[in-house]
Each structure stands twice: as C-alpha cells, then as structure tokens.
Write the structure tokens for this entry.
Amino acid sequence: MPRLPSLFVSHGAPTFAIDPGVAGPRLTALGRYLPRPQAVLVVSPHWMTPTPRVGTAAQPGTIHDFGGFDPALYQLSYPASGHAALARRAIERLSKAGWSAQADERRGLDHGAWVPLLHLFPEAEVPVFQVSLPSRLDAPRAWAFGQALAPLAEDGVLIVGSGSLTHNLYEFRSSHGADEAYVSAFAGWVREAVEQGDNARLLRTLDDAPGARRAHPTAEHFWPLLVAAGAADAGAGAPPATVIEGGIAHGVLAMDSYAFGLAAA
C-alpha cells in the first residue's frame, strides 16, 4: 500500500457535527478521494496526558465532552470500531522514539475526533483509535511527536491532527470581539507557509504570525497542525500539501484543513 498522507483538520465547535458549513462537504470529498486507510489515528487536544496514551478499545465509545449545546448533539454517535493491532504498533513506534507510551483500553473518541470524522468518513467504516497529545509541548517537540508516528503511514494508517486553525474561546463565547480580519491574516500566513513547504516558518508560527497570540491564547489547538506536518516530513521531493478551504465559522474560527503529502486532485 502506498504511504498515506497526514491530515490537519480544524474541528471547530461541537456544532460542526450538525452544521457542516463550508468545511464539512469538502472533508467528505477528501475522504472519498483518499486511498482507503486500514485505520485512522487521531491526535486531539481534548485528550491530553503527561505521557502519551493510545486507545486500544475494540469499540471506542462516543464521548460528548461539552456542555450547553443543542440537545441533538448528545444523541449523535460515531460507531467506528477500533484497531488494537495498529494501536499497539503506535505504542511501539512512540516508545522507539523515546516517548513513554501506554495502552488505554477504555478510552473512547472525544469530539475532536468524532466530529470531523462524521464528515471525513460519514459511514464510520474505517477503524479509529486515538493517541493522546502530550501535555507539555513546544513547536519542535510537537513536530517530533508527529515524526515518531510517521512510519505508521507506511502501514496504512491515516494520521490526523485535529485542532483549530484559530482558537480564541473568549471571543467564541462572547457576543463581542469577532474580527475576521485578524483570523484571515493568521490563516493566510499559515497557508502560505504550508503551500511553500516552509517548515521553519511553520514552526515559528506562534512567534511570528500576525495575530498569533490572539488566534491562540493557549497553544494546545495549534500543536496538532505541527504533529500532522511532522508526520509527513519526508524531505525533498515529497508531494506538496493540499489546502482544504473551510471558511470562517462564528466570526473567529478559521476552518481550513491541510493534507500533507497529497497532491491536489
């Protein structure tokens, strides 16, 4: 099987599950275009642990880890099976790279995993397992974490970093402060770095990009982007990244996603 690309997806608010906007149909189209994975590995900021944990449940449950939203959201489930064998291989790869990874037999899928997967693979036909995001990261370590997972792409695993291209919860929850200008400026800066394959610039995003501290008052929703990019760091000659434009939701959430190592259709 050819090496699979890795993805960064902006999972937005939980309402993305029932309000697909621009991004949802484009993720569905991407899922149809991709080679069929043996399993999907998701790294989400909604499961963070001091050292990596890997879900090995045969049938991971759907976790509704949010409150105060439309009651319809709590009726949704994503009934994909797990893949214990490939999850254990992820543990081996992480351990070999110096990360003290452990199995978690009970962990289900948080909304950072199942909400975008509702669009990417709406039939839940592809097995899924999660890998927790280490709670102490900086840009180089997030990239290295993706590199540690990278060999799994040769085994038919689609590595997905699920985060948010912009993530200012205060502005999302407030009726004031929505400002698409800074969101667009930040998203455009990142897009240019991704399209040019400028990894050094991408690693400096939270230091150098316009509006970076406003876009990410805390960094956990940005790290999955670097995990996904690191997982596809194949050096010179690798296919360029493909941008999946998602627009801006709620005035402050940039919803672009990226497929690293995948030429545009």
About this structure: DSSP finds ten helices and ten strands in the chain.
